[in-house]
Design a protein that fits this description.
- With 226 residues, the protein is an alpha+beta fold.
- It contains 6 helices and 10 strands.
- It has helices at residues 8-13, 33-49, 59-71, 81-90, 100-112, 194-209; strands at residues 4-6, 18-25, 115-120, 128-132, 140-141, 145-146, 153-157, 160-163, 180-187, 212-220.
- The strands form 3 sheets. Strands 1-4-7-8 form a 4-stranded mixed sheet.
- The protein is globular and about 40 Å long.
């Protein structure tokens, strides 16, 4: 399994961070009707129970926004993906239908508040380090073009950045040909709820993407905890 290290800058600025990574073999498919029924049910619950001004006060999202501020990024200009998805729902805008893997990752994100990276593991070169984006660092966000990642938490392999809580990178994105998935759940609010989120994600992956050969890795900031 691909290993993940946390840079000293991340450990100093985000001491409560816990990262849960899931690696597995999968079968991707076009938009799945049953999955979208689950997504629609989740959207209905969000619309009934949440107001747009409350989104950034939810612990997982609030903690991710705090990490942005600690690292020098404005979370209102570069929103964490979980926040952006919930705001989209509460504004009455449809969620994007991409493919089964991306759609189920988005479902986990809107339900739990975690910003989740989803990558084609076969496109990752070597292990990963979570560091901080630098001025002028080249990064092409999926569907966003060139993205200024200075001050954002960024996962890098040996070729460069592949993922931030705002957007993943085009180079390692999931496609219909993806058979090896790496999902990274970023718990800037700590470990509470992280294991349950992992189990929920695994349930979806087994049911909708025939996940097998599953491996999991958890890394934490405090005292180099793993």
């Amino acid at each position: 399994m691909i290993q993940i290290e946390l840079s000293p800058e991340i450990q100093a600025s985000c001491p409560d961070l816990r990262v849960l990574a899931i690696a597995c073999q999968v079968k991707n498919s076009p938009s799945d009707v049953a999955l979208w029924q689950e997504i629609a049910a989740e959207e209905a619950m969000i619309k009934a129970a949440c107001r747009i001004e409350e989104i950034n006060k939810w612990a997982p999202i609030k903690a991710t926004r705090t990490a942005y501020k600690q690292l020098g990024k404005d979370p209102n200009r570069y929103r964490p993906s979980a926040e952006a998805l919930r705001r989209r729902i509460l504004r009455g805008m449809p969620l994007y239908r991409i493919d089964t893997l991306v759609d189920l990752i988005n479902l986990v994100s809107i339900r739990t508040g975690y910003s989740i990276g989803g990558f084609d593991a076969d496109k990752i070169e070597g292990d990963l380090t979570l560091g901080v984006g630098q001025e002028g660092e080249l990064y092409t966000g999926i569907g966003r073009g060139v993205l200024n990642i200075a001050g954002l938490p960024v996962y890098r392999d040996r070729l460069g950045g592949i993922g931030t809580p705002t957007s993943d990178e085009e180079r390692t994105k999931i496609t219909m040909n993806t058979t090896s998935l790496l999902m990274i759940i970023n718990g800037y609010s700590g470990s509470e709820g992280l294991s349950d989120t992992g189990e929920y994600a695994l349930d979806l992956l087994r049911r909708y993407a025939s996940a097998e050969n599953i491996e999991m890795l958890q890394v934490g900031c405090r005292n180099g905890e793993k």
